[in-house]
Amino acid sequence: MGKARSLAVAAALAAGLTVSVGAAPAQADSIRYVYYLYSDCLNGGNLGIQWGWWTSYNCVYTETYGPKWALWA
Fold first, then answer.
1. pTM score, two decimals?
2. How do the pLDDT tens digits run along the chain, 73 residues long?
3. How far, in Å, CA of 27 to CA of 6, rounded?
4. How far apart are CA 66 and CA 73, in angstroms?
5. Domain extents in the chain
């Protein structure tokens, strides 16, 4: 199940890439994805850095649509 989750995270991040390809590096942070687990948020943020999609990220706890972690980058 862990491998399937990793693949789902990678696919979700790839989908977000199509939205932000033309964005300038200096733009303000925006929500890239929402996770149920803090560890998944950290993993997604680190993958985004590793793949060159952003240079920093932040995982913020939110209860807007239930308890979740929002990845801001």
1. 0.59
2. 444 444 444 444 444 433 333 343 445 789 999 999 999 999 999 999 999 999 999 999 999 878 899 999 9
3. 27
4. 21
5. 28-73
State the amino acid at position 42 in one-letter form: L
Calpha distance 27→66 (Å, rounded): 28
The string of DSSP letters for the chain reads -HHHHHHHHHHHHHHHHHHHTT--TTSPP-EEEEESSHHHHHHHHHHHHHTTS-S--EEEEE-BTBSEEEEE-
Report the residue count for the chain. Answer: 73
Chain-centre distance of CA 72, in angstroms? 7
